Every structure is written in structure tokens, then in C-alpha cells.
């Protein structure tokens, strides 16, 4: 299927970004993301206090601390994905998911024994943004699309199996 640019006669080459322009675009995107990460929670909090929005305390705090899980997830994926010598296994996503499961198991223990609401907030915010269901599914589709179904099944079984084992240990040991 031809691109929209080809259909209307616009050359896409003049819209491609070079190395320096791409770095500038990345810096601008990062700046806008950081501003949004600060402004959106503050706007939600202000709306709640003015009774314009009805959002629970746990959900509000979870949104505020979720970047503490999203940033390490992104860094792990950037540093480790594609660096594996084992069939291009996505080590970064796998590590982020397993760290999230371990952290969730530990926080669940403290929540059950002490009843501290901040444990629930950390589970929802940090663990929820550190675990990467969307990346996991995207990688599974990538394996399937590249006719690497064997690795797709191996990755799924290892991810679910190790995650379940970690949570089981956390539930029984702690």
C-alpha cells in the first residue's frame, strides 16, 4: 500500500530527521514528557480538591509515583534488549517484568502484615509501570511475525513460569 505522501505527491525525504535533528527532537520530547509527568498529577490533584473530579487517594498517588517504574523499565529495555546472545531474547523487558513481580511480592507481604496503604500505592504505581505487558505482547507478535514461533513460546513459558515462581516464593517465604 502506498504511503499518503506518495498518493498526494509529497516527497518524504525532506521530512526525515538527521542525527542532530533527531537528538533535538528527542530532547524536546523528553522535556514535554517530564513537564506532562509533573503537570498532569498536579492538575488531577487540584481538580479533586475543587470537587471537579472524584478519584481515590490510592489512584492519585499511584499516578504520581508511576514514573519511578516507567523510567527504569525504559532504561532496562534500551540497555539490555538486543544485547543477548541467546536468540535475540528481550532480556530488558524480561528483567523489568521479573523485578516488578519481585517488588510486588515484597510489597504485598508488607501490605498484608502491616496494612500500610503506601504498599498498595507502590504496587499499583511503580510495579504497574515497571511491568510491561504491552512490550511483552509486542515482542511476542514480533517473534510470531518473523517466523520465530519457537522463541515466542519459550519466552512466554519462561516469563510466566519464572514470574509465578518468584511470586510463589514471596508468598510462602515472607
UniProtKB/TrEMBL annotation:
Gene Ontology terms, cellular component aspect?
plasma membrane
User: Which reactions appear under catalytic activity for this entry?
Assistant: fluoride(in) = fluoride(out)
Record-annotated membrane-spanning stretches: 24-44, 86-105, 152-170
* Localization of this protein: Cell membrane
Quote any Pfam family the record assigns. Answer: CRCB
What is the role of this chain? Fluoride channel required for the rapid expulsion of cytoplasmic fluoride.
Kindly provide the name given to this protein in its UniProt entry. Answer: Fluoride ion transporter CrcB
Amino acid at each position: 500500500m502506498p504511503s499518503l505522501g506518495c498518493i498526494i505527491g509529497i516527497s518524504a525525504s525532506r521530512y526525515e530527521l538527521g542525527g542532530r535533528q533527531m537528538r533535538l527532537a528527542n530532547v524536546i520530547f523528553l522535556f514535554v514528557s517530564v513537564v506532562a509527568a509533573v503537570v498532569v498529577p498536579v492538575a488531577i490533584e487540584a481538580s479533586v480538591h475543587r470537587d471537579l473530579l472524584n478519584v481515590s487517594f490510592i489512584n492519585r498517588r499511584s499516578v504520581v509515583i508511576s514514573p519511578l517504574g516507567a523510567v527504569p523499565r525504559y532504561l532496562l529495555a534500551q540497555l539490555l534488549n538486543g544485547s543477548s546472545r541467546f536468540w535475540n531474547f528481550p532480556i530488558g523487558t524480561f528483567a523489568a517484568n521479573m523485578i516488578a513481580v519481585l517488588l510486588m511480592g515484597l510489597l504485598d507481604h508488607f501490605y498484608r502484615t502491616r496494612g500500610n496503604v503506601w504498599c498498595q500505592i507502590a504496587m499499583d504505581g511503580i510495579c504497574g509501570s515497571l511491568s510491561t505487558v504491552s512490550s511483552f505482547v509486542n515482542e511476542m507478535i514480533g517473534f510470531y511475525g518473523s517466523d520465530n514461533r519457537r522463541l515466542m513460546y519459550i519466552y512466554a513459558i519462561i516469563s510466566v513460569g519464572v514470574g509465578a515462581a518468584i511470586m510463589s516464593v514471596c508468598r510462602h517465604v515472607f
